[in-house]
Amino acid sequence: MEETMTGHAIQPPVATPTLSLCIPTYNRAHLLESALMSVVPQVKELGPDVELIISDNCSIDNTRQLVESFRQHCPIRYHRQERNVGGVRNVLSVVAKAAGKFCWVIGDDDMLRPGALRKLIDVIEKYPDLDYFYVNYSIDEYGRRDGRVVDPSEFLTWNRTGNENLDERVVPDWTTLLREDFSCLTPIYASVFRRAVWLRGAATLRLATEFDETSSFSSIDESFPQSVIFARTMIGKPAWASGYPWVICCSIESWLDYVPLIVLLRFHELFDEYARLGADPHLFRRQRQRMFGYATSFFTQIFQGVQLPGLANFSIARFMKKHWSQRDAWRAIYQATLNASMSEIVRHSPLVATFAVAAKICFRVRNKLSRFRMRFQPVHSTNPERTAD
Asked: Does 2-254 carry CATH code 3.90.550.10?
């Protein structure tokens, strides 16, 4: 139900705004307050060019009261779901209800640096034919904001950005950004997009009929809907990149329990989808290799009998069959076999036991050869008084 705080339905803006700033939220008023503090002054400054729309996924905290307090400073379109529809559907819902020609979806735990909205309005007007605008972001530690309201002025400098290229530019093909972005364009706050194009892509998503806990991260469409939509609509098109990190990412993810599932399956499925749609696999090879690196700790837990969320039917044999040509996948398995005991591996993953034995033998032989070489390696004198015969 879309409503004002007095319960009356609110109408879309009379004029179509250039940009809709969309914030999906759920039970995180303590974080949303910082986000709104960073964006409300900018929305107020730009007037009818920008609308702020919030989709509340049936929160039971004080989200509604918080939004009401900020509505005293600028117009906010507020929509509250009648029940928890899940994060994916809440994102799709807020874009569907937006009125702008372009949309920028940010998390309720993200902040915008001063001038971000003005910058995006200016570049949209400068490049009216582009459908996609990439916004760089800085990444900070959540501990800097834990338990308190923070302001963008506390994050004037940064050590790390999502994209190391800090040059503002137009790229001839959207896929260039797949290689540059640390997370391969999965952070939704990094994308400003033409709403009409998004809606066409969203219509191709395959989602469960009804949301429940088993729906979360059950497919790439249920995990990275924004990335799937962009892959199906942006490949081969030019795009703009900000260079400057207008977004402050200093967050705590609500989906941490699903990280093993995302690392072992969903990211690789997304990479496969990019390739299937025509993107060069070399563009995201670095990100795929990093996922294999992260996999070691999860393989170790699987060998030790730990049941990871969402991976009840996961098979290491199927994983290696799919990635048999990837050296980094084999390295991840190899490292995991060194971290777990043979008894654990045999008990919980008999099919890998043979490989584990070979891996451990190779590791021990390599260590012995290394010690042998060091023991018998000639010692070269550095005495300056020694002369050649």
From this structure: yes
Q: Do 261 and 217 meet the contact criterion of CB atoms below 8 Å apart?
A: yes
204: DSSP letter: T
pLDDT higher than 70, residue 363: no
DSSP H stretches of helix in the chain: 29-46, 63-70, 86-97, 116-126, 176-180, 195-202, 225-234, 259-261, 267-276, 285-303, 316-322, 327-339, 342-348, 350-376
Backbone φ and ψ of 193, nearest 5°: -140, 155
Residue 283 DSSP symbol:
G
Pairing of strands 102-105, 19-25: parallel
Percent of the chain topping pLDDT 90: 68
Write the DSSP symbol of residue 8: P
Phi, psi of 179 (to 5 degrees): -70, -40
What confidence tens digit (pLDDT) does each residue in 20-58 have?
Answer: 999 999 999 999 999 999 999 999 999 999 999 999 999
Distant-in-sequence, close-in-space partners of 386: CB < 8 Å, separation ≥ 6: none
Summarised one tens digit per residue, pLDDT across range 78-96 is 999 999 999 999 999 999 9
Q: How far apart are CA 276 and CA 229, in angstroms?
A: 14
What the block records as the tokens of 42 is 């900018």
- Predicted TM-score (pTM) of the model is 0.87
* C-alpha–C-alpha distance, residues 291 and 289, integer Å: 5
Burial of 171 per CB tally in 10 Å (0-12, 13-18, 19+): middle
Rounded Cα gap, residues 77 and 98, in angstroms: 9
Ramachandran class of 278: left when φ > 0, alpha when ψ lies in -120 to 50, beta otherwise: left
- Which among 49, 45, 52 has a CA at the least distance from the CA of 25? 52
pLDDT in tens, 370-381: 777 777 666 554
pLDDT tens column, 201-259 = 999 999 988 887 778 899 999 999 999 999 999 999 999 999 999 999 987 766 788 99
* Ranges of CATH 3.90.550.10 domains, the chain: 2-254
